[in-house]
Amino acid sequence: MPGGIFLKSGEGCRIVIVDDEQLIRQGIKHYVEWEQKGFQIVGEASNGQEALELIELTKPHIILTDIVMPIMDGEELTRIVKSKYPHIEIIILSSFGEFEYVRSTFQSGAVDYILKPKLDADTLLNVLKTAASRIPSLQAANGDTNVAINIGHMIEKFVSGYDTQYDEKLMAETFPYERFCLVAADTRLLKDTDAINMDLIIHRFEELLDTQLKKIKLQEFTTDENVSVFLVNGQEDELKEMQGLAAKLLELDSQLSVLICDTFERFSQIGIKYNDVIKKMLQYRFYFPETKIIVEEDLAKEGPKITSFNLDKFTNDFKHERFDSAFDYLEEHVTELSAAFTTDIFEYKAFFGNIIFNISILLNNLEYDVKNLENEKFSFFNSIDEAKTAASVVEQLHRFVEKAKEIILSRKNQTGHSNLQQILDYIEENYTEPLSLTGVANHFHFNPSYLSSYFATHNKEGFNEYLNRIRIEEAAKLLINSSIPISEISGHVGYSDHSYFCKVFKKQRGLSPSQYRRNQKLNK
């Protein structure tokens, strides 16, 4: 099956790009139509060490390298390359303040340099042409040689979101049939990597096409080490057989999944189909891994509407040790969230990481013994980051919550904690009333002096400090979220003396109530 189309050009000058900034590498790759100018980007690396590993594989004529990079910088890379491969020309990318580094690379054999702030397509092309003119093997070729332009590179540009020009007539010779579709083999969930590999999948898929269909052309490209995508060109009626072929492909492994998009008319639509359909199918399988064949109409299914997680409610329940309520609410939200395949996977995982982080902080603030939990939370973060399915992420959260509940239970078994919680809950529910230490003591049948001592022993704040904090927290919310006059807010949160309220508020928040409200409005 053909892997390229042919254009008139000299022998392609092979280039490797080395820069630790991915955006710079992507920008250079897509500045111009490199093949039409006689160049081909054959590899990219994020540091000098990776570049050295690429040289033997790609055999470049020119290396375009940044000067400042981690692990191995451009200066050391230049010295090693010119020592081992003197025929390779090196061009340096640098910033204004790096002249001494650039000078040292020239001493090692670099041919030219470009300042990054002045990097543009014309400058880059001129410098590359100058470097190419120094390479004898390129000069021996004439301008009438037929050069295969790699279709895989063209596909890469389209799926990366860049437009690229191509000869419609020559493309029609390569892909002669009226329709295209994309078929992806997803092996991300395979537990035993030795059980199956992409080469076997590709061979099996080609075999099925050859034996089952008559008019078909195939171009394979890989976007992930565990996902292989096939561009299939054929007649509409032939392409309708894809689901049947997918079922046969699944016989290779029960954890394999096949993704099939609807047919489309033009080669140039491949980028849209990959980004708007195949990538969403890959996300769909993260949430529904049991689905073995995914077609485009599956993406039209309407998932549940997700309500925003109320972190204030969750935090408030935690602060007042209403743990059952907090964890039940969290479980409800997780169930809802995990059924919505439209949620970006990164955002989904970030939610779980943030919840674990918040639970650790909240328990620590409540003076629970979270030392072991703190040590373990990073392993939970890693497991969530590496999880291949939504169910695996939820499992990590459940494991973490179980450990948190064990800590909570051990504290509840301590003498006095249950009684204290009843007192804290009572204050929380009645802070708008004219509460006093004596009144609360009478409510719980305590001696006031005993309650004061008991409170100080079992809580990090004294009675009055705790009551004032609860009232000022509520006052701050009213100042931000309501238009109630400040003179009335003090009464709303339990203070009969407005001037005393203002004094306590400023002590806790560092600003008077009026300054606080004004600042909050300015910051919105």
Automatic annotation (TrEMBL):
UniProt source species: Metabacillus bambusae
List of residues that carry 4-aspartylphosphate: D66
Keyword terms, alphabetized: DNA-binding, Phosphoprotein, Transcription, Transcription regulation
Top-level taxonomy: Bacteria, Bacillati, Bacillota, Bacilli, Bacillales
Pfam families: HTH_18 (PF12833), Response_reg (PF00072)
Database matches in InterPro entries: CheY-like_superfamily (IPR011006), Homeodomain-like_sf (IPR009057), HTH_AraC (IPR018060), Sig_transdc_resp-reg_receiver (IPR001789), Tscrpt_reg_AraC-type_HTH (IPR020449)
Coiled coil ranges: none
Cross-referenced SMART domains: HTH_ARAC, REC
Occurrences of domain HTH araC/xylS-type (ranges): 421-519
Protein name, UniProt field: Response regulator transcription factor
Annotated ranges, domain Response regulatory: 14-131
